[in-house]
Amino acid sequence: MTARNLFIAAAMAAVLMPLASFTAAGAPKKTSPADAAEQDAEKITAPLLRDAVIVDNKVIYLGDLFINVGDKGNAAVAYAPAPGERAIFDARWLYRVARAYRLNWRPLSSRQQVVVERVSQIIEKAEIVDTIMAALYEKGADPTSEVELTTHLSRVHIAGSAQPSVGIDDITYDVRSQRFAAIVSIPKGDPAGHKLRLTGRLYGVVKVPVASRTVARNEVISKRDVKWINLRADRVMPDTVTKLEDLVGMSSRRGLRPNEIVRQSDIERPILVERGSLITITLHHGPMALSAQGKALERGALGDVVQIVNRRSNTVFEGEVTGPSRAKVEITTIRELAQNR
Q1: What is the rounded distance in angstroms from the CA atom of residue 258 to the CA atom of residue 242?
Q2: CATH 3.90.1210.10 residue ranges for the chain
Q3: pLDDT at site 287
Q4: Cα–Cα distance measured from residue 327 to residue 282, given in angstroms and rounded to the nearest whole number
């Protein structure tokens, strides 16, 4: 090989060798099926934050917040909120917990959070009042009395696993003033449960009739439209309707709502004769009966005496309402009219 050929061969080798090295280094590395399956398994088993958490314990465990944490899930990381309440854990706190337990997890953003709610059972105010009333009855209180608490109380939340019960630890009752004070434990006998000091007073009650449905204005009330309810004795006004016979057969002067206390001013006897309406007037004298038409100058119910004008003579006289658009006059009334003419 000539010197010229040796020089050309050396130059080509110098150019081709870097290209070959570059191709080898830059070529993508092929992944085997086993390696790909292992990577997918790592993604599947990586710790994931739960969307919502509901607990029924006093503490929150790592497994309550994350899935795929293995044996670390039994580690207690925080106190649970009170029964019926919730707690919010933000991204920063969650990341600190994940690092502390060496979890391969980090928040997607600073807004990521998890809400933890505590399971609870609700003890309603009515159940607590009934328990107090039963204890007062044993001390001589009238079982028909109504309890009014002076201590604010709505409802009580207890743990979901607790026994839903109400206990009276202590109660005092003054018969003369009808006042009481009670120490209530919820659940009953649970030293870790709620301890409530409640005070109140008892009130006597009376039964009063009220409308069982909506009664329109001027509608006549029948017996099937009436029901009885208990009303505190101190709320019974002098004009409160307390007897069934004072309500049945009456006409409402305004619309009455169901269970609404009815006053004497709310009802009246049914109006049978309206002012300005034409009515039939009847005169009875022995076996003889005369009838004529007149115009009512007043409205009236059954038995009311209203003024009537004779349409022909324009004579004004009084008649007793006997029915719808009907009235009767006495012979003495006619005689008085004749003497005054």
Answers
A1: 16
A2: 205-268
A3: 77
A4: 6
